[in-house]
Amino acid sequence: MNFLSVLSVLLLLGAANATALEHPRTLIPRAPLPPAEFSVPITGKVPRRKSKSNALARRGHLGGGGGYTSIVDGTLGDNEFVTNVTIGGQHFSLIIDTGSSDTWAIQKGFQCLSADGTRVPQSTCGFGSSGFDVNGSTTFQPSNLSFLGAYGNGWSVAGPVGYDTVAIGGLSVEHQLVPIPNAAYYTGDGVNSGVLGLAFPTVTSVYNTTDPANATTENHLLYNPFFFTAVKEKKVKHPYFSLTLDRGTFQQRENDTFDANLGLLSFGGISPVAVVEPCVTVPIQGYSTNSTGSITPSDSPDAQYFWYTVDVANYGIAGSAELLTGSNNTILDSGTGLNNVPPDVAAAFAAAFNPPAVLTNLTAGLELYVVDCNATAPEFLVHIGGKTFSIDPQDQIVPLGADAQGNEICVSGTQGGTLTNNPNGILILGDVFFHNVVITFNPIDGEVTITQRAKY
Ligand SMILES: *[C@@H]1O[C@H](CO)[C@@H](O)[C@H](O)[C@H]1NC(C)=O
Ligand SMILES: *[C@@H]1O[C@H](CO)[C@@H](O)[C@H](O)[C@H]1NC(C)=O
Ligand SMILES: *[C@@H]1O[C@H](CO)[C@@H](O)[C@H](O)[C@H]1NC(C)=O
Ligand SMILES: *[C@@H]1O[C@H](CO)[C@@H](O)[C@H](O)[C@H]1NC(C)=O
Ligand SMILES: *[C@@H]1O[C@H](CO)[C@@H](O)[C@H](O)[C@H]1NC(C)=O
Ligand SMILES: *[C@@H]1O[C@H](CO)[C@@H](O)[C@H](O)[C@H]1NC(C)=O
Ligand SMILES: *[C@@H]1O[C@H](CO)[C@@H](O)[C@H](O)[C@H]1NC(C)=O
Ligand SMILES: *[C@@H]1O[C@H](CO)[C@@H](O)[C@H](O)[C@H]1NC(C)=O
Ligand SMILES: *[C@@H]1O[C@H](CO)[C@@H](O)[C@H](O)[C@H]1NC(C)=O
Ligand SMILES: *[C@@H]1O[C@H](CO)[C@@H](O)[C@H](O)[C@H]1NC(C)=O
Questions:
Q1: Which residue out of 73, 102, 246, 333 is catalytically annotated?
Q2: 7-244: what CATH class?
Q3: Which PANTHER family has this protein been placed in (predicted)?
Q4: For position 294, what pLDDT does the model report?
Q5: Ligand 8 in contact with 300 (CB < 6 A)?
Q6: What is the end-to-end Cα distance of the chain in Å, rounded?
Q7: Residue 22: band (very low, low, confident or very high) from pLDDT cuts 50, 70, 90
Q8: Interval between CA 94 and ligand 2 midpoint (Å)
């Protein structure tokens, strides 16, 4: 499949939106992570046997109906990772996004819009289903609220909000607030019907007005996203969710629109996958908002959590002793494909490919490090909390499909942060990083645990 287009590249560069409210900032002493109570395998055709068999073994352990698993899949050349989410008894594949907070599914009968707001056929939006049918749910309750979501890659969705039962991998929450937008500017993958947002309540996008066009900062209404409700209602013993995203093979990433079994989403503990050293638990970096609404990393007691932002002390390239610029403004974002690191780091990394990756205007205004698909990639090192995590060179050659002349185009998995759609200088460790670690998020205590995975 050739999907080299500005849109496919923008999907790789996906990201979050923002707003604000307080979140308690307390750090607790850490204990070893418990195994997950609920797990959602992420699906695939190829060598993912280890995580799959571990997941199934775990299911056996829990026994007696205690083990809940569903499947997570890769779509669009494994640039997006989706899992099966049930809303009011209806099943949808939603994009797993640790970089945003709203969990929504498109509503049946929605209007698909072009960039300039004109109505286009529903198929243009590329959703994977006809959408959530309010009449098909016996548990759905309407509200007078509305949703106005905007994503870093340009997507925007708007419409009503309701309450319904949401279930993922056997973890079920009743009367969860769920946006069901009826208008979308969206470039779907033909599989997903919306987003599963796992970040903080501060960056939810619901407003106390029946018309999303009247959304303002004054009527912005914060709510608890799915996982926060589950914790509040003590549906999980421990306030963890854990994400493992496997890499597909080069062939899958080049050509596949759908790959089953590409990892695990787990609730209540760490995903059951093979891990090695190192492992580190670090605090989530909070932000302070100044009078003009700008946010800066802050350790002050009134700091708020927006995303899963960590302090990357510095970066390195295997075989070189040089330490490259880090940043404590770095988000762990499963909804973004590529890493977005400081420009000097991206440049040093590009130079270490053989042959080197070259900064290129792929299309007007879209400058990326392009690399020979057959190049030898360097091993990238990420230093967090005094530990060094390694990114497999396989993840650094990302196929985008063929250009008009039929030449395969690949880009570096690690790009310069300021070169992309990147508000406030926020940097991102995306799926390229996630392929090498299992990340266990504890949003309640403000910590994340990063564990290196065994090579696969
Ligand atoms: C979700 O899982 C249900 C139950 O196993 C299945 O019937 C449905 O087809 C799945 N839906 C999606 C979108 O994967
Ligand atoms: C749901 O039912 C209402 C009232 O019967 C109807 O107006 C609406 O079109 C239905 N919605 C869908 C998506 O079928
Ligand atoms: C929405 O507002 C109308 C008018 O104020 C009211 O009658 C209705 O009960 C409200 N609906 C919900 C679900 O709150
Ligand atoms: C929403 O706004 C209405 C007034 O328009 C107010 O009565 C209501 O309390 C608000 N709801 C919430 C949850 O703030
Ligand atoms: C939205 O705002 C417009 C203009 O300010 C106003 O006329 C309209 O009544 C508002 N609609 C709702 C649903 O609040
Ligand atoms: C992808 O598919 C095209 C067309 O079938 C084929 O030429 C190409 O070799 C495939 N790429 C890989 C990496 O398998
Ligand atoms: C707010 O923060 C931004 C970014 O750090 C800075 O440029 C601006 O001057 C600050 N404004 C005020 C009023 O402090
Ligand atoms: C990291 O954040 C703190 C506030 O939490 C700030 O004072 C410091 O300058 C930041 N350090 C770097 C390297 O960005
Ligand atoms: C890409 O295009 C921009 C705007 O035309 C230009 O400033 C920049 O130098 C170009 N970058 C490269 C690597 O050619
Ligand atoms: C990469 O190598 C394969 C053979 O191993 C060759 O068929 C292909 O054309 C090469 N691709 C590039 C972009 O050089």
A1: 333
A2: mainly beta
A3: BETA-SITE APP-CLEAVING ENZYME, ISOFORM A-RELATED, ENDOPEPTIDASE, PUTATIVE (AFU_ORTHOLOGUE AFUA_3G01220)-RELATED
A4: 80
A5: no
A6: 25
A7: very low
A8: 24
Confirm whether 7-244 and 274-453 share one CATH topology. Answer: yes
Query: In the chain, helix, strand, coil percent, each to 5?
Result: 15, 40, 45
CA of 218 to the centre of ligand 5 (A): 14
**Every domain of the chain and the residues it spans:** 7-244, 274-453
For 61-130, the DSSP string reads HH-TT--EE--EEEETTTTEEEEEEEETTEEEEEEEETT----EEPBTTPEEE-TTS-EE-GGGG--SSS
Which tokens in the block code for residue 356?
């080197």
Q: Is the pLDDT of residue 289 over 50?
A: yes
Rounded distance, CA 279 to CA 128, Å?
Answer: 37
Residue 13 clears pLDDT 60, i.e. is over it: no
Summarised one tens digit per residue, pLDDT across range 337-353 is 999 999 999 999 999 99
pLDDT of residue 151: 85
Q: Is the pLDDT of residue 42 over 70?
A: no
Report the sign of the C-alpha dihedral through residues 32, 100, 335, 324, in that order: negative
